[in-house]
Amino acid sequence: MKKLKVQDLIAVGIYTAIYFLLMSVCLLILRFVIPGFHNLFIPAVTALFSGVIYLILLHKVPKFGAITIMGTVVGLFFLISGHFPLAFLPNMLCALAADLILYHTKITAQVKIMVSYIVFSFGLMGPILPLWFMKNAYIDSLIARGKDDAYINGVFAHTTTAMFALCAVAVLVGAIAGLFIGSRLYDKHFRTADQ
């Protein structure tokens, strides 16, 4: 197993920054398009537009650990930016699982890449999972951050079981479509540069 070198870590940092930028742009657009639902659908929309970044990372740094580092950095960003304290764990765990799928399974390459990207994309649900599974603790954290009842009620206005299912299906569809689009973009604009 090849070990990550300094230049690999720099490359991972660059692609993680681009991933952050895409995620931020998606969030900004969603705030205007579907206000009130934007946080719930940011994982799916980010997955839709980030497939090409994932593919570039896999080709530029084809080593175990690169995906884990990217997911961990994203998770730590959630931790230090005031999200619910456990919001960072899904990013780290899903990224590690994606790495393991990609480099320690014997399924075909295309399937490995697709499954690993789907799993990686589910990591972005970390900040919203507590809305359903740790509601009281999440409310306590919002109160501790000085949020009033109106804000808290707005946060939980759409957190139904059906909405959770819709969010999960949206991430799955977004990741599949995102990797399909990303592979087309990669083949057209980046593959020749890697050869």
Automatic annotation (TrEMBL):
The chain crosses the membrane at residues 12-34, 40-57, 64-80, 115-134, 154-181. Keywords: Membrane, Transmembrane, Transmembrane helix. It comes from the Bacteria. InterPro entries: CHP02185_IM. It holds the Pfam family Trep_Strep. Coiled coil: none annotated. The keyword rRNA processing does not apply. This is Uncharacterized protein.
